[in-house]
Amino acid sequence: MQTVIFHSTIFGPIHSRRLGVSLGVNLMPNDGKICSFDCVYCEAGYNAQGPGTDGIPSRESVKKALKRKLEAMQAEGATLDVITFSGNGEPTIHPHFGAIVDDVIRLRNTYYPQAKVSVLSNATMAGKPNVAEALKKVDNNILKLDSAVASTMRAINQPVSANVVPEGVIADLKAFAGQCVVQTMMLRGEHNGIAIDNTTGKEIAALISAYREIAPRSVMLYSIDRATPEQHLEKVGKDELERIAEQIRAAGIQVQVNA
Predict the structure, then answer these.
(1) What are the tens digits of pLDDT across the range 135-172?
(2) How many angstroms separate the CA atoms of 150 and 227, rounded?
(3) DSSP string covering the chain, please?
(4) Sheet containing 194-197: which strands, arranged edge to edge?
């Protein structure tokens, strides 16, 4: 069974195909997973593995660990493009997410002022005022929308709450007034005997309609790159991603493809 891959609060730096040289900030446990989605493609595995025993890191421990790492990197002369909130679950679930964002921005300004601060979020908390306020402060507010069709969203993302539906997510993303990037994983396959495919004409048309409503800074289209907990998934190739991207660009929306 695919399990968590981030075993520390600060991890990397790693090379991100979307963001460059990235230092990760994991606000979830180091030995378990806590997420409001249970995506079939999540590199950190399914939620069924449990939250572990370490618990979520405190604000102070995140700040201290990041400071130590940035100091060490600076002393080594290492380069850094971005500090990215990611890890073993949804970072915006952390009760002190907003305060930690402020800490990270201050540390970035001190040690690597040229680096960006990014958040990879599934958008389930984006409608909460304190979370939205924090997300507006970062350089790259990257929010997930894998499908604008309810049944497909449920199949791919398996939201923990039945209240999470495309219409609500789209409305929350629209409220950022263009101050966000929408991230969409394109995939095909099967899970629990149910076919999954968000590359069909119907799916792409629904996504384009949603993108138009949200009016994001850009859209990131990407495909499976690492091991997934569901074994019956197909990676969508770069040529197909580019064909899908051209349809989206024709609607006047900027698209970045990461195959």
Answers:
(1) 999 999 999 999 999 999 999 999 999 999 999 999 99
(2) 26
(3) -------SSEEEEEEETTTEEEEEEE-S-SSS-B-S---TT-TT--GGG---SS-PPPHHHHHHHHHHHHHHHHHHT---SEEEEESSB-GGGSTTHHHHHHHHHHHHHHH-TTSEEEEEE-STTTTSHHHHHHHTTSSEEEEE-S-SSHHHHHHHH--SSTT--HHHHHHHHHTTTT--EEEEE-EEEEETTEEEES-SHHHHHHHHHHHHHH--SEEEEE---S--SSSSEEEPPHHHHHHHHHHHHTTT--EEEE-
(4) 194-197, 187-191, 233-235
Could you tell me if 229 and 40 are in contact, meaning their C-beta atoms sit under 8 angstroms apart?
Answer: yes
pLDDT digits (tens, 9 = 90+) for 114-131: 999 999 999 999 999 999
Closest by CA position to 189, among listed 222, 146, 232: 232
Average pLDDT over residues 95-121: 98
Is residue 159 reached through a cis peptide bond, with omega within 30 degrees of 0 on the bond before it?
Answer: no
Task: State what percent of residues in the chain have pLDDT above 70.
Answer: 99
Cα–Cα distance, 115 to 105 (Å, whole number): 10
Question: Is 90 exceeded by the pLDDT of residue 14?
Answer: no
pTM of structure: 0.94
Indicate if the pLDDT at residue 225 is higher than 90. no
Please give the average per-residue pLDDT across 75-79, as a whole number.
94
* pLDDT value of residue 1: 64
Amino acid at 151: S
The tokens of 155 are what?
A: 């199949």
Separation CA 192–CA 185 (nearest Å): 19
